[in-house]
Design a protein that fits this description.
This protein is α/β, with parallel strands linked by helices. It is 47% helix and 15% strand. It is built from 15 helices and twelve strands. A six-stranded mixed β-sheet has the order 9-8-7-10-11-12, with helices on both faces. α1 packs across α15, α8 crosses α13 and α11 packs across α14. The longest helix is centred in the N-terminal third of the chain and has 18 residues.
C-alpha cells in the first residue's frame, strides 16, 4: 500500500513536529530510512503477512517496544498489524486505534482476524460505510479523515537530475503511474505497458511511460516492459514528487492521484478492478464529488479497459496547453482546500484524546 506508507510517513512527521514522541514499527523499506532521517525512531517487525512465526515475532516486538518506550497509544494502519497489536494492547491495557485505508476483502476467517480498535479513522466516506456495515462499528467510534498532502513538496516545477537519471526526452509526452505492483493492484500498470506501442504511434511526439512502485508483480512487469523501449520501471521511490515534476500526465488513483493533482498535472482516475477500484477518466469539476467520496479510487464506477484508457490519454494529449493548465490548477485547488496535513494530524490527535480521557 504505497499510499498508506506515504500517509504514515507524513502523519508521523506531523505528529513529531508538534512535540509528540512518535515511534514507527514496520517491515522496513525506503520510508523507514526516511523516517530515521527526520529524527523519528523506526523499529523493524515482520508485519507483512499471516505466517505464524511472523505473527509471534511481531507480537513480541510490539510488546517490547510498548514496555521499553512507555507507549501510551498504539495506532495501526493495516489489518494484520491491528490484529496483532490488539492482542498486546488488551494484555497491557493500552488503547488501540486504527486508520482504514481501503476496502478490504471479507471472509469469515479474515473477519475473525480483524480488530479496528477502540476508535477508527477512515480515509473516505465509502470506506467508513463498509467498515460500519461489515464490522458493526458504531458511528460515534469512526470518523473520516484525509490523506494529507504536503503541498510544499508536491508542486509544479522541473528536476533536471531526474530527467538525466532516466534519460527522459523533453519532446515526448510523459505519462506516470504510481502504485503498489501486487497481484490485485497492478492491472493498470500492465495496461499502460501494453498500450505503450499504440500510444507511441498515435501521439505525434511519442510517449514515455514511467511506472513507479514495487511488489509481487514487479519482476513480471519488468520482463513485459523489456519488449517496449519507451517504458521505464523505477521500483519504489521516496522522491515521487520529483518524478511528477518531469511528467505531463498521471494515470492512477488514491493518494498518488492527489499528489499528482498537487503538482498541477492532469489526472486520469483509473484503478484496479481486483482491488474494487474503477474508472471515471479525466478528473475535472464534474467528477469531484464521486472522487472525494471514494478517496479518488472510483469504487462502484465502471471498470477500466485498455481501449478507453488509451482514448483518455490521447484526449489529454490533444488538449490545448491552456486546458491542461486549467485541469492542473483545479486539481491543486482541491488538494489545498481539502487535503491538508494539518487536518490529518489534528484528526489523529483528536482520536488519541478521546481514547485517553
Amino acid at each position: 500500500m504505497v499510499g498508506a506508507e506515504t500517509h504514515i510517513f507524513e502523519l508521523a512527521k506531523g505528529l513529531h513536529s508538534k512535540g509528540n514522541n512518535v515511534i514507527v514499527m514496520s517491515a522496513g523499506g525506503k520510508y523507514a530510512e526516511a523516517l530515521e532521517e527526520c529524527g523519528i525512531k523506526h523499529i523493524y517487525a515482520p508485519l507483512k503477512n499471516k505466517r505464524p512465526q511472523n505473527l509471534f515475532k511481531s507480537y513480541k516486538a510490539i510488546k517490547k517496544i510498548i514496555k521499553d518506550e512507555k507507549i501510551n497509544i498504539v495506532h495501526a494502519h493495516a489489518r494484520i498489524p491491528a490484529f496483532i497489536a490488539s492482542k498486546v494492547c488488551k494484555k497491557m491495557n493500552i488503547p488501540l486505534v486504527t486508520t482504514v485505508h481501503g476496502i478490504y476483502k471479507v471472509t469469515p476467517l479474515l473477519k475473525l482476524l480483524t480488530n479496528w480498535g477502540e476508535k477508527t479513522l477512515a480515509v473516505s466516506e465509502d470506506i467508513k460505510k463498509q467498515v460500519m456495515d461489515v464490522y458493526k462499528i458504531r458511528e460515534e467510534d469512526i470518523q473520516v479523515t484525509v490523506n494529507g498532502i504536503n503541498t510544499e513538496v508536491f508542486h509544479n516545477g522541473n528536476n533536471e537530475q531526474i530527467r538525466k537519471e532516466f534519460n527522459l526526452s523533453k519532446e515526448k509526452f510523459t505519462i506516470i503511474h504510481v502504485s503498489r505492483l501486487d497481484n490485485m493492484s497492478s492491472n493498470v500498470a500492465k495496461m499502460l505497458i501494453e498500450s505503450s506501442k499504440e500510444l507511441n504511434e498515435k501521439i505525434k511526439d511519442g510517449v514515455q511511460i514511467i511506472i513507479v512502485g514495487s511488489g509481487e508483480k514487479e519482476e513480471e512487469l519488468k520482463l513485459l516492459a523489456k519488449s517496449y523501449d519507451n517504458v521505464i520501471m523505477t521500483g519504489i521511490r521516496t522522491d515521487v514528487s520529483e518524478l511528477l515534476k518531469e511528467s505531463d500526465l498521471f494515470v492512477g488513483v488514491s493518494r498518488a492521484a492527489l499528489e499528482a493533482m498537487s503538482t498541477e498535472l492532469p489526472v486520469i482516475l483509473a484503478g484496479n478492478k481486483d482491488y474494487g477500484q474503477g474508472h471515471i477518466g479525466i478528473f475535472d469539476e464534474t467528477k469531484t464529488d464521486i472522487a472525494i467520496n471514494t478517496n479518488f479510487c472510483c469504487r462502484e464506477c465502471s471498470d477500466v479497459n485498455k481501449e478507453q484508457l488509451t482514448k483518455d490519454i490521447i484526449k489529454v494529449y490533444n488538449m490545448s496547453k491552456e486546458d491542461k493548465e486549467e485541469l492542473g490548477r483545479y486539481g491543486r485547488k482541491i488538494v489545498v482546500e481539502n487535503y491538508s496535513i494539518e487536518k490529518m494530524v489534528n484528526d489523529a490527535e483528536k482520536m488519541y484524546e478521546e481514547v485517553t480521557k
